[in-house]
Task: inverse folding
């Protein structure tokens, strides 16, 4: 049984979601969002992201973490802001000795909705359905839960393939 | 007497430099560079930056830290990479409870060379001269030492102005 922390860093809001999963069945534990803009200056904003994620890790003791990989950004200015938030978030994960898995956005959307180009509302709807969440997680929290589900499924599939690979050798 | 750690995060190499200063006289302590690209994947590369800066902090116990502010980047892809490195570096500073001061590139160049648009070679030359460094710090380390000097001077100027401001009130 894994406890997976999914993170969705954004330039303004960083979503996080924690699930417990055996790869086939996923249970919702918690989710939320960190508003980075409440800091006065850049170091303060990044400190909030780093410290809040550290607090989440201490509270829920995840065994795995997962994050969406980013290949494109709208423009250089927003890419820099997003990059800084991602850098601080990933630093919090590795500082706690946690492995970080990266998944392409397409795969995350494909996993939870069957459609690689699903929009945010569709992802939010499917995450709520898959995890039997009462109430609605925010869009950012839903994205974080989606990448956690993606990690759970992906690890399970790998594990299923392992014996066959061993036989083939 | 302050011990100032200057950081120059880059997408490939993060320079660092430590000086001891009373605001007027600056003494070179150490400098070096962290090659982020030696990590296999993004979390590993950011972990190197975070951990190496943490090690530098533990070794030299700085009282202040300074970093150049970035407003522009060549393109979205390089801005994202640079942002992630900056985010991990700043996270290491704030995680150690250190204040982080940001200075515009123009001011840093102006401070060490008298010319706000000085090139990297000129900054490197002047840093070597100002700190009486035997041998040459790398370009990245020189940039990091330059922002540390900028912080030292800027804090000293503020302190000098303080009594006048108090009298004026």
Result:
């Amino acid at each position: 049984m894994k406890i997976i922390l999914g993170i969705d860093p954004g330039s303004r809001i960083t979503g996080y979601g924690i699930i417990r999963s055996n790869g086939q069945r996923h249970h919702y534990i918690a989710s939320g969002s960190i508003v980075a803009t409440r800091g006065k200056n850049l170091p303060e904003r990044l400190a909030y992201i780093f410290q809040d994620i550290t607090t989440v890790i201490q509270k829920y003791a995840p065994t795995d973490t997962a994050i969406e990989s980013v290949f494109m950004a709208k423009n250089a200015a927003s890419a820099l802001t997003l990059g800084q938030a991602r850098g601080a978030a990933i630093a919090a994960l590795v500082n706690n000795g946690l492995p970080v898995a990266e998944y392409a956005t397409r795969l995350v959307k494909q996993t939870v909705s069957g459609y690689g180009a699903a929009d945010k509302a569709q992802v939010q709807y499917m995450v709520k359905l898959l995890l039997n969440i009462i109430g609605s997680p925010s869009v950012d929290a839903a994205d974080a839960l989606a990448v956690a589900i993606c990690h759970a499924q992906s690890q399970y599939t790998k594990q299923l393939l392992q014996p066959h690979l061993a036989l083939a050798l």
